Amino acid sequence: MKKKNKMKKRNNPLTDIPKGLGIVFIVMGLLLGSLFSFGMWWLNNSISKDEAISLSATFDYYYNVSHKGSLDYISINFTDNEELFIDGSCYTRNLENLLKELKSGEKVDLLIHPRSNGIWQMKSGDITILSFEDSAAFIKRDNIYFSAILGTLCYIMAIVGILSLIFHYIENKRFYYLKYKKY
Question: Are 76 and 84 in contact (CB under 8 A)?
């Protein structure tokens, strides 16, 4: 009487991931990881005042745009220009108070980031509402954390996809080895 070789299926969370999903994890992890690590840095990287777009506009009104209780950005509308924004990481109580004091029709001088269209400096007459140096420091600090965390998580997703494919390969090798093994 021949003994039947019963193979036990191991409970491995990485082999429970379908092969196709493992490939999607790899592709999406690498693409999104690169986007968050390098794309966000390129979009909002620090620039000099000479590289910024200088603009004079007539202030109309502003409003805060929040999501789940945290401030995303401050949208500022102008009568003679398009809507621009101040990044939420630049928010301070002083900025809020100075924006409240601005009246509709008042002229403001702006320095705008050329790639993100964000306001990095805003002056009304002799009053500096938002300074260029503060904006650069706030945005750089915010982007470092955001890019590092999301980029790392996406690269970990790619590693999980690679490991799942490796474990699928090992399981298939073990299955065929035990199935066709000669006694």
Answer: yes
C-beta separation of 175 from 29 below 8 A: no
Q: How far is CA 69 from CA 64, 66, 72, 109, 121, in A?
A: 11, 6, 9, 30, 25
On whether the CB atoms of residues 104 and 61 are closer than 8 A, the answer is yes
How many angstroms separate the CA atoms of 71 and 64, rounded? 7
Q: DSSP 3-state assignment of 52?
A: coil
CB of 107 within 8 A of CB of 58?
yes
Q: How confident is the model at residue 177 (pLDDT cuts 50, 70, 90)?
A: low
Q: What is the pLDDT of residues 157-167, one digit of tens each?
A: 999 999 988 88
CB–CB of 55/119 below 8 Å? Answer: no
The token duo for 14 is: 């990485």
- Cα 79 to Cα 42, 88, 94, 161, distances in angstroms: 30, 23, 24, 51
- 181 pLDDT band, cuts 50/70/90, is low
Nearest to 53 by CA among 118, 120, 112: 112
